[in-house]
UniProtKB/TrEMBL annotation:
Annotated pathway: Cofactor biosynthesis; NAD(+) biosynthesis; quinolinate from iminoaspartate: step 1/1
Similarity-based family: Belongs to the quinolinate synthase family. Type 2 subfamily.
Cofactor(s) required, per the database record: [4Fe-4S] cluster
Organism: Ahrensia marina
Gene: nadA
EC number: 2.5.1.72
NCBIfam families: nadA, PRK09375.1-2, PRK09375.1-4
GO terms under cellular component: cytosol
Places the protein is found: Cytoplasm
Cofactor detail note: Binds 1 [4Fe-4S] cluster per subunit.
Listed name of the protein: Quinolinate synthase
The keyword 4Fe-4S belongs to this UniProt entry's keyword annotation: yes
Gene Ontology terms: biological process: 'de novo' NAD+ biosynthetic process from L-aspartate
Pfam families attached to this UniProt entry: NadA
Main location: cytoplasm
Length: 303
C-alpha cells in the first residue's frame, strides 16, 4: 500500500465534490501524472484543453505561467496552483517593459512570445507559441523577420528550420541549457544503438545530434510510435518515468535534469489546494484581455 495512496484517494474524492479538474504537465511526478490528473499534456495541449474543460475549478499541476494561461482562457473559472512559487527561468528572463522596448527598437517586426512567459509579456506580444508550433507560428506572418522571445535556444532551433530571420532574447531554460553535445555523444559512443530524443529548449549543438527533437508530447509520441530499443530522453527527469509503462520493450536511459519549479507540486500540496481553495490565480483584467488574444491566436492557428 504505497505511502501516497491516501492522498490519491482524498484528492480524487474532493475533486468530484468540488467539480474540479486537474491539468498536469508531462513533467509532473508519476503519482500526479497517473493517479490524480484528468488531463496530461505539453503546454499547447494543456492550453487547448483548458478551453474545453467542463469544471468550475481548474487545479494546474505545473508552473505559474501554465496556470496563468488557463486563467486567461477561463476568466470565469477558479484556477488554483498548489504552489505559487512554482516559477520558470524563461518566464523570469523578460518583462512586459522589455517587450515594449523591443517593439520600439524593431518597429513593424511581429513579436512571437513563447508561452513560458508572464501575462504581462504575453499582453505585449502579437501571438504566443509553444515548442510544438513555433515554426508554424513564425511562418504564419508571411514576413521575412520575426522576433521570437525569450528562449534563445528555441529561437535558434526554429531558425534552423525556416527561411524567416529570427531575432531573439537571452532567456534560457535552466534545465535544458545544462545538457551538452559532449555528454550525449559519449552515450552514443558507448552504445551506438541508442536513440537520442531532445527538447528544443536544449542548445542547438544538442538538438543537431538528436534523432528527434520536439515538445514533451512530441517526444512521448515518438517513443510510443517508434519503440526504439534504447532511448535517451534529453529533458526533465519525470518524463521517462511517466511513459515507461506505456512503452514496453523500450529501455530508458536517463541523463535527466530536474526542474525544481515543477517539483514544487506534490500530492499533499494538491490536497491542500483543493481543501483550502488556494492559491488562486488572478490576472489584471486589461492585461488579461490583451494576453488572451495572443494565446487565442496561437490556439486558433490552423496547422
Ligand atoms: P512543452 O510545451 O514541450 O511541454 O514544454 C514546456 C516546458 O516547460 C519545457 O521545459
Ligand atoms: Fe521552465 Fe525549464 Fe522548468 Fe520548463 S523545465 S518550467 S522551461 S525551468
Amino acid at each position: 500500500w504505497p505511502v501516497y495512496a491516501p492522498y490519491v484517494h482524498a484528492i480524487n474524492k474532493l475533486k468530484k465534490e468540488r467539480n474540479a479538474a486537474i491539468l498536469a504537465h508531462n513533467y509532473q511526478t508519476p503519482d500526479i501524472f497517473h493517479c490524480v490528473a484528468d488531463i496530461v499534456g505539453d503546454s499547447l495541449q494543456l492550453a487547448k484543453e483548458a478551453t474545453k474543460v467542463d469544471a468550475d475549478i481548474i487545479v494546474q499541476c505545473g508552473v505559474h505561467f501554465m496556470a496563468e494561461t488557463s486563467k486567461l482562457l477561463n476568466p470565469d473559472k477558479t484556477v488554483l496552483i498548489p504552489d505559487m512559487k512554482a516559477g520558470c527561468s524563461l518566464a523570469e528572463s523578460i518583462t512586459g517593459a522589455d517587450v515594449r522596448l523591443l517593439r520600439e527598437r524593431y518597429p513593424g517586426v511581429p513579436i512571437v512570445t513563447y508561452v513560458n512567459t508572464s501575462a504581462d509579456v504575453k499582453a505585449e506580444s502579437d501571438i504566443c507559441c509553444t515548442s510544438s508550433n513555433a515554426v508554424a507560428v513564425v511562418e504564419s506572418f508571411g514576413v521575412d523577420r520575426v522576433l521570437c522571445i525569450p528562449d534563445e535556444f528555441l529561437a535558434q532551433n526554429v531558425a534552423a528550420q525556416t527561411k524567416v530571420k529570427i531575432l531573439t532574447w537571452k532567456g534560457h531554460c535552466e534545465v535544458h541549457e545544462r545538457f551538452t553535445a559532449e555528454e550525449l555523444l559519449a552515450y552514443r559512443e558507448a552504445d551506438p544503438e541508442i536513440q537520442i530524443i531532445a527538447h528544443p529548449e536544449c542548445p542547438p549543438s544538442v538538438v543537431e545530434i538528436a534523432d528527434y527533437a520536439g515538445s514533451t508530447s512530441g517526444m512521448i509520441n515518438y517513443v510510443r510510435d517508434q519503440r526504439p530499443p534504447k532511448v535517451l530522453l534529453v529533458t526533465e527527469c519525470s518524463m521517462a518515468s511517466n511513459i515507461e509503462s506505456s512503452a514496453p520493450g523500450v529501455q530508458f536511459i536517463k541523463p535527466c535534469n530536474l526542474c525544481p519549479h515543477m517539483k514544487r507540486i506534490t500530492l499533499p500540496k494538491i490536497l491542500d489546494s483543493l481543501l483550502e481553495m488556494k492559491d488562486e490565480i488572478h490576472v489584471d483584467p486589461s492585461t488579461a484581455d490583451r494576453a488572451r488574444q495572443a494565446v487565442e491566436r496561437m490556439v486558433n492557428l490552423k496547422q
